[in-house]
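::Encoded backbone::
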Amino acid sequence: MTLLGNLLEYNQKFVEEKSYEEYQTTKFPDKRLVILTCMDTRLVELLPKSMNMKNGDVKVVKNAGAVVAHPYGSIMRSLLVAVYELQADEVLVIGHHDCGMSAINSEQIIGKMKDRGIDEDTLNTLNYSGIDLHEWLKGFSSVQESVSHSVDMIKNHPLMDKNIPVHGLVISPETGKLDLVVEGY
């Protein structure tokens, strides 16, 4: 059976047995908080447990590196929706130590794209269209600096409510220990 088949089979039993009932909540975060964090697999359960969060407490937005790379991209849009439509009153940006984005090499990623069939014509079209793939795919060398940068992007966004505190933290993916980088109060 395929991975998708396994997931769907499990889901059918999950619904039939009403296992969802313990997770029912509203779309509004009980703790009135939105978190931008990394998509790292080690944080899926560790992050909420390390902060005493349960289903329904917070809105969580995830991407590679917990980075706000563009002021009008989908990450910033999600944070603005959380604040203006979903009653979030604070924002946390939580990066983590040993992040894969700190080791990203755009040349290697582009090489892997080519290995999987992305041709040079496609890459050239993007380049000639003004898209710098090396810049777009770059990582960071300091998680603290990356978190501070994302906090600044959010806090200084022209559409963000200036009364919303934006905090920055770094979590250990081994222990769950949080280190404060930026206090937004």
Observations:
- The chain has a mean pLDDT of 96.
- Strands lie at 33-38, 58-63, 90-96, 166-171, 178-182.
- Residues 29 and 58 are 5 Å apart (CA to CA).
